[in-house]
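for the writeup, i need someone to sanity check this before i put it in the appendix. the sequnce is what the collaborator sent (i think, or maybe the updated version? ugh). structure was predicted straight from it, no edits. if anything looks off just tell me and ill rerun, i have time this weekend
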Amino acid sequence: MSTTSSDGQPTSGNHAASELDRVEKELLARWPENRLEPSLTRINALVDLLGSPHRAMPVIQVAGTNGKTTTARMVDELLRGFGLRVGRFTSPHLQSIRERIVLDGEPVSPQRFVETYDDIAPYVQMVDAGSDIPMSFFEVMVGLAYALFAEAPVDVAVIEVGMGGAWDATNVVDARVAVVTPVDLDHSEYLGPDVATIAGEKAGIIKPDSIAVLAHQQPGALDALVRRAVEVEAVVAREGTEFGVLDRRVAVGGQQLRLQGLGGEYDDIFLPLFGAHQAQNAGTALAAVEAFLGAGAGTGPIDVEAVRSAFAAVRSPGRLERVRTSPTVLIDAAHNPAGMAATVAAIRESFDFTRLIGVVGTVRGKDVAGMLTELEDICAELVVTQNSSPRAMPADELGALAVDVFGADRVSVSPHLPEALEEAMELAEAGPDDALGGSGVLVTGSVITAGEARTLLTGRTA
């Protein structure tokens, strides 16, 4: 493999990898994503110095608690199905930092990632020098994404919010379409103690004269979101009223959908993802794209065949993804009770396991007991482990919580993920004879755990 350097000279693949490693180390030396000083001051200073790259393209912005990344992937796929050049920013990543910045449906190349970083680095240093708090990892990544999309250039950027909304670094944009997936409890130490307060923070992405596309929400959350839309005179499209899932049935490798969009009905939609929550994400993504393209009541559906082709091509690595058979191994990035409940419901609906073994690795600061409670009825046994994150909950500590939920006879502790996966597959295959062929393993509890398991089991990047 070879690439070309910024001065036009050929470089080796090893050199490109080395340069990417250098940049990643520099980024990771900054404040991590879980350490925040809520403010738009630093990111505003950076994009001002860069010549406002965030204003170079229209934006569809996606906030919410669960389903943001998959919804952003669906929006990207649909837009490209209509011939648009799309830049997509999501977080966190499963396996490679380049997954966060996607151009034309593929993670940006190592060369382009490095070149763009080196271009903006002097301006980042200027912001650092003028601030009591240097720019965080996430803030620099946002600036890098906007600079790269402006340079490409793209026709539209699909931007996933990192945390919250109003003060999230992505929110220097004025999104033409603001999408809010279901809001639930997560990151309460930063966002608030209840869904209404959290939704009020996420509502900050809804800007004057935009279109707010709201997935189904709990009552308190919906009130907060609609209140913001009214304040800024945004148009509102709500799941269950203006759009939604009319019908769904399980199909081989996914599900078959009939969707109500803003412009009409769309039938015979095959979605190669599992669970009612993914159907909901599909309905939300379709409404967002219709809103962006100008569809609405009385306009009729946008190109149905293009929609069908786009949804059939959707992939969402690490979201109830089957990575191995005999036994079946699923990896899922659920990291809060609401996400875990959706995962469990999807497994019950789409898989016929007679014996399921869970592998769980989490990070501190999450409602771990709530996640374990969701898993208790579906997992015969649980192997608790530890991922590589500095915030990882130690396996012994996680094991003690698991024993409280599952009982000591159903829990084993294996601190190293490779050994935990091996033990879980052996346990899955060690059930009674009538369980043979119906055994499986679910690896979950954290995006980090899911990504590391994916690397170990497939070697593929997302």
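The chain has two domains: 2-312, 321-458. The longest strand covers residues 244-251.
thx in advance!!
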